[in-house]
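From the shared-data thread, chain only:
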Amino acid sequence: MGAGHAHPLYLEHGSRVHRAPAEVKLVCLVVFVFAVVATGREMFWPYLCFALILVVVWRLGNVPLRWIAPRMLIEAPFVVLAVLLPFTEGGERLSVAGLSLSVAGLYAAWGIVIKGTLGVAASLTFAATTPARELPRALGRLGVPATITPVIVMMLRYIDVLSAEIRRQHIARLARGDSPRMAHQAGAIAKGVGSLFLRSYERGERVHLAMMSRGFTGTIPEMAPVTTSVRATRRQWVIVLTPAATAVAVAVTAWGVR
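Structure, as tokens:
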């Protein structure tokens, strides 16, 4: 299942970042995100350092900014939430262009936007440089229970299937004269969401029955390319974790000079 599936977020390149072991890149991603989240929102220079770390990784991995930028729109709902915080939070206030804004709300909005942006950018970097077929091996080598790995892999696989189903429903509505952007079509959109849920549930049952009929026991069987691949060396761990270690050093320094 996972061996032949190419995720749409994956960029085919032969860079050093692409060739790095997936399990090490996954650890690097998690540590980097934790370092960003742990950094105080009252400071600004650490986030510039985090952004520079990502830019360096993009250069090494041949990931263009024009590819990253449009996919960052996934965080748009959180940005909308952040914009409202300076108006709704209490405490000390200041006047900007005739608007009364909460200082605590401004810091909270800044923290949500910058941490969310860096987290999404780092996740996109991992997705762009790591084939989906390597994820089961990476999770297994990191000690993730064998019962959880298939759930994660199937989720990644069928997010793409559901996205394609949503696109087909959208095209079908347009072909029948629907105007999805008009408020009076809210009922039709709600019915479409319900239909998508039912189709997804039924598809899941069919896929599960098909897998059980083919001898699926709850764990993904080991494949030859996976079992014979070489584990990450100590040198690879040190080199690939350098961005995460740098991020941790920045976060610790930020707390020390706070």
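Residues 21 and 233 are 9 Å apart (CA to CA).
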